[in-house]
Amino acid sequence: MTQIVTVRPARPDDAPFAVPLIQETIGHIGLILTGAASEAEAEGVMLEFFVRSGNRLSFQNVWIAQTSSEALGLLLGYAGADSGALDEPFREHLRGRNLPSDFLSEGLPGEWYLDTLAVTEAAREHGVGARLLREAAAQASANGLERVGLLVEHGNRAARLYEREGFKVAGERTLGGHVYDHMVRPAQNTAQ
Question: How far apart are CA 20 and CA 70, in angstroms?
Fold first, then answer.
């Protein structure tokens, strides 16, 4: 990829690009959050949430990696201490559909939680993910947080990228019946 990659805050009109990429990346978690029976239904619910403020999937928590001509990927993240409040609109949505709303919030206090890192298939292996991880660290620092945390499902090949970028396994968590490594790195990465 020879073009310069920049990262900018998302806008509501980024929903058609961002939402399918988010759902593709989070899979079953998207079904749990939305109470949907299919990925298509989950995307429909997520489209509604993306354009609103005050929830974990809001455009306000998303940064878009792009060249001058196309979007390449995204970063979705927020202060871990805000996880519960950002999940409450989804819990309310689930209660309104008479569905279980007791899912575990993912972010932890003291960290900037990288909820979703997603890169289009065509842009993979071109440094876009690493660029977005640097943006996550910048967001952590800008929010006065000393570390970035994320969850990666066991067996996900993205764990290699995270390790190259200075993330270390700090524990394990189970969400929706799936086991994840909780990985963290300092906001000011010394591994680069």
Answer: 16
